[in-house]
Write a structure and sequence with these properties.
Blueprint lengths: L5 H9 L10 E5 L4 H12 L3 E3 L2 E6 L2 E10 L4 E3 L1 H7 L3 H25 L9 E5 L7 H12 L4 E8 L2 H9 L3 E6 L19 H15 L1
Parallel strand pairs: 1-2, 1-6, 6-7, 7-8
Antiparallel strand pairs: 3-4, 4-5
Helix pairs in contact: 1-2, 2-7
Length: 214
């Protein structure tokens, strides 16, 4: 195992982000699993903590396989190769996207009531997740922060698949990771403890970071 848990992963990741210390940056975790990692990064870099809300578009019948992702403010990224291999009809993709958009909008309303969005215009955005497999949600998140005016976009994750790194780099995103193992497998395979993160923990981490910044 590369990491004991998400907090340990965040501490290891910080060592790769020292070049961003002192920059005008915002650290944005992907709820839910990316937020505990992002909290470690934000605390170490003395940077503000926020979230960027995205939803994976899972293949019908195989929801763990991403055929794309959507994010706040209408951002959407699709994986045509997955859609083609899975034989997904356009109307099926639209149905999944509409369902996930409704859930995303609900989560945005809830999270923004706890943590109003921090301004990104002219700043660096450090987007943090607990691991990147296909890269679909990470790419959607990076599209969101770029649309909000971030002048530098960094995707930081403890473990990344090499294909995902290639796609993100092609999008103009700087990728920072602790490890890019081959074969990759599942993100959870690289953690000793990889339980579900409850909503209450996400809220507690965001509130603690905002209070610390006051």
């Amino acid at each position: 195992m590369l990491f004991r848990d998400r907090a340990d992963a965040g501490r290891q990741l910080v060592a790769r982000l020292e070049h961003l210390r002192g920059q005008d940056a915002v650290v944005l975790g992907l709820p839910r699993g990316g937020v505990p990692v992002a909290a470690q990064v934000a605390a170490s870099l003395a940077a503000p903590l926020d979230v960027v809300v995205v939803r994976k578009l899972g293949v019908p019948g195989h929801p763990e396989l991403a055929m794309g992702a959507i994010g706040e403010d209408g951002a959407a990224v699709h994986s045509p190769d997955v859609v083609r291999r899975a034989g997904i009809a356009p109307e099926a993709l639209e149905e999944v996207e509409a369902r996930e958009r409704a859930e995303l909008d609900r989560r945005v309303r809830w999270l923004r009531a706890v943590a109003p969005r921090l301004p990104l215009a002219g700043r660096a955005a450090i987007v943090v997740d607990d691991g990147v497999a296909t890269g679909a949600t990470a790419r959607a998140a990076c599209a969101v922060v770029r649309a909000l005016g971030a002048v530098r976009v960094v995707l930081a994750a403890p473990v990344c698949a090499t294909d995902a790194v290639r796609r993100l780099t092609a999008d103009g995103v700087e990728v920072v990771s602790v490890a890019t193992p081959r074969p990759f497998g599942a993100v959870s395979a690289h953690y000793a403890h990889f339980g579900q993160i409850p909503d209450a923990e996400v809220v507690a981490l965001l509130r603690a970071a905002r209070q610390e910044a006051e």
